[in-house]
Amino acid sequence: MLQRNIWMLSLAIITSATDIIYYNCTCHGTTFCSGETCVGRACFVTEQILSDSPAIHTSRGCFNTNINEQCNSRTEVSRAHCCFFDFCNKNVTIFKPVEEPQVTSLVLVTVLPIVLFVIFLMLFAFLFWKLKESSRKKSLPRLIDFGHVDIVNASIVGDSTLGDLLDCTTGSGSGLPFLVQRTVARQVTLVECVGKGRYGEVWRGLWQGENVAVKIFSSRDEQSWFRETEIYNTVLLRHENILGFIASDMTSRNSSTQLWLITHYHDNGSLYDYLQRTTVDPEACLQLAVSIICGLVHLHVEIFGTQGKPAIAHRDLKSRNILVKSNKQCCIADLGLAVVHSQTSDYLDVGNNPRVGTKRYMAPEVLDETIRTDSFESYKQTDVWAYGLVLWEICRRTITNGMVEDYRPPFYDMVPHDPSFEDMKKVVCVDQQRPNVPNTWSSDKILSALMKIMRECWYQSPSARLTALRIKKTLNNLKNSLEQRKQDC
Question: Do the annotations mark residue 96 as ligand-binding?
């Protein structure tokens, strides 16, 4: 077409001296058009970039004068194209203005760096998060098998109840991988504070309509939170007489970091609270005693195998750290001072918690500092001492011959309300005193048996004390004999 235009233009110049050639052209988009066609010495197409719109305005028509000037018209926002045969401008379009590639280049120069900068920021944020998570994992040694987190679909939490999540697990401490623990923790709503202590606070919370207990540790007791989280995630720790663990997480509330430990919630509260407001009969007393020792035995025993469990000593057993369930059985709580031992790997993990146990419940060897800290058996023996004191607390609130005594803590009549280390050392080690055991307990078969057990828990020599397993067998035999007697009657 270009060659033909050149040929027609040449022909027009040659013949211009004698004759002027006119062409029929398509006409629209211009004020000179009176119809759809026009006749002129050249057909033209013009395109103009509108200042108020991204669209291009196209005009088609005829030139009759100043053809060379008009056909060569070209500005930053408009350009023209001429041709010289009938209706040659009908379907002709002009190329985009030469300035547009410059606009594209300008866009690339300005926008592309911004896009790359945003991508860089996102990558930096991701790497920073990964580094922080890696540091967090290192600070929780042996806490959770993080290698399996990636197979967990956190969305299951939204479709499950607490019972579903925990019942479907076997052989694990928490029953929940770390990813799901954090998801659960962030869905808990705090309802009311139900207890305070040196460690922090305990709240009743709600998760999907179910009550849970949220233990919020103070910042100074961070090591206890670490230790409890670590212990509760021990394989095969779950037991009906050990407080059911749900989740552990660091969470930010009110511009401060809080350490949460989420467990099952028990309306009856601690054994300490329960005994102050409730009396029990001998059978209920025995049930409380059996359930506590069952939990302690499970802690003390080491289960061998690839899915085994190390032996654990509590080190702070007391009535405040034992909860009473709705079925009037007990479960042991607060493992912040626990010691872990494994014969398989030959290690004794005492932890690095600077906190000591409760002075009122300390065994003689702890008070006079003769305990063998390199021996796991020594820590188990201190648990047995403390169990004997808890047993005494329960027996005091047991009705015998229509009589019952007020609740009192161990050594209430020998030391101040908040005894010092030296107070307890003088009473237990120097004077070798023990809680008073009333003679009236001897008249009841159950209390008489419990009285004998608690005294064997209080021997000055640790090696002379009963083991938790021996106590459990003795109490189970007593329980079975009582049940058999009932059947015979």
Answer: no
